């Protein structure tokens, strides 16, 4: 459904724009309907940049993003853009700053109606809103007519998702949507994403938290400095990480039942590995991703900055 | 006992009345103990951390005492706390990025800071260099401006500066929350190293991340709605918690290896009570699956096993 081919984003930096910052380099990935793809990376890995390019908030410097077979860069003009956003929506990290503080929840939904569903009758619209709220498991009585400051972070985040569901979305870009929520409510939002996936929505789940990426996603994409270092079925990437960076990252994740010493010992027991791409005669640092198992790709171990 | 907090209550003044952010907190810290202070937003964990070093203008000390190394800590009196700060009690703030003066080179900032506390800088300079080296920073950083350092480096500089005078108590307020996974680990381990080397006697590590804090803390205290819910050794809190809130909190944390398809985790329904006018009795009552009539009465924070305290009628 969503396809990224060799997508690259380069920024000009420095006093006179003389230097280049490669935020995203040659990223290939695909999201199918009913699939959750996690983009996992530390700060500066380019994960949010990819999300913003998919949402057309910034344009890629090179490469192509296609959605349902059509090039996203070719979406021009008011009507086509609106049509695109009817299908693709984003939800972001900070739910508290996403709402107009003087608009009630009804009015937020009303804006969607005015923009996208002018022809819907009042009754049909109300039914639609209630259905969207039921999907995100919010009680309409609890949120309708309320101002953002009267709702909790988890409720606001679910309200944002409900707002996206009022459109006929096929694809949701969820950029760090739970990092600002409390532990006891974040799992509810994660479960909600799981339910949406069951309804056939494609989800691009962007996170820095490896355990969250693992919980919900079908495919995990590990990014480092704009490059994909490892990509594959989540279970495989987490159980048998191949790239040294992925392995180090996983051993640093604080876990409830494993101490860092135990994780280190396991890492050492695994030993050092040679890059499979270079071993097959690829040029160190320049060869592309190598397929280890069906769908499990790993980038060159020696590729730096 | 290096720190002894007894029935501490701190309220926030607002136009609509007092918000009871901290309502009767008692605990103690042994020498060399790192206590993780965990809880959700609004549980009072940061308020407790702040109360021990500096109350801001909105905070009002209502009741309770704090004793540090046998001497009373005048937490309610801003002026009388001055000689204790940095010497006896020190803080690593959440945003180390904004804790450094952007217009000063780091070396000059430290010099000014140390002198302002009436300490001879020449006497501590060699120790400063030694400790910077310990956390993997070389002397060069003293000649740099904060903007020239990365987030992790700034965090480590602040940690070294905060503990330079070997305070008895260090409060680390969400120090790892804004950092990447690998930097988080380095910072947490460096803090534990400071304790091992005796730079600080005991530490309160405020965090919302239980998985992280149990890696370095000896004990964990979980707070809920302004009161302690449970305190025990880190291992006990993770593996055999007795308070229903702690149990539900831990079972809602996704771990590497747990997936939505395999095992659907449950959150805790409901939300914490407002602290402007909190209901009487146990504050977790409304969300608790075990609640019964007696919960209308506030359970004491009692020792249910040696070294294990819990505030629940059903925790025996």
Automatic annotation (TrEMBL), chain A:
What SUPFAM superfamilies would the database entry show? Answer: P-loop containing nucleoside triphosphate hydrolases
Signal peptide (UniProt feature, chain positions): none
Q: Cite a single GO MF annotation.
A: ATP binding
Which BP terms does GO give this entry? peptide transport
**PROSITE patterns linked to this entry:** ABC_TRANSPORTER_1, ABC_TRANSPORTER_2
Q: Quote the protein name from its UniProt record.
A: ATP-binding cassette domain-containing protein
Naturally occurring in which organism (per UniProt)? Streptomonospora mangrovi
UniProtKB keywords: ATP-binding, Nucleotide-binding, Transport
Task: Determine if Nucleotide-binding is one of this entry's keywords.
Answer: yes
Q: Which InterPro entries match?
A: AAA+_ATPase, ABC_transporter-like_ATP-bd, ABC_transporter-like_CS, Oligopep_ABC_C, P-loop_NTPase
Asked whether the keyword Nucleotidyltransferase is assigned, the reply is no
Q: Where is the ABC transporter domain?
A: 2-250
TrEMBL record, chain B:
Keywords, A to Z?
ATP-binding, Nucleotide-binding, Transport
The record's CDD domains line, in alphabetical order, gives:
ABC_NikE_OppD_transporters
Q: Where in this chain does the record put each ABC transporter domain? A: 3-250
Single Gene Ontology BP annotation: peptide transport
Among the Pfam families in the record, one is ABC_tran
SUPFAM superfamilies documented for this protein: P-loop containing nucleoside triphosphate hydrolases
The domain of life for this entry's organism is Bacteria
Keyword Nucleotide-binding (UniProt): yes
One Gene Ontology molecular-function label:
ATP hydrolysis activity
Spell out the protein name for this chain. ABC transporter ATP-binding protein
The record lists the organism as Streptomonospora mangrovi
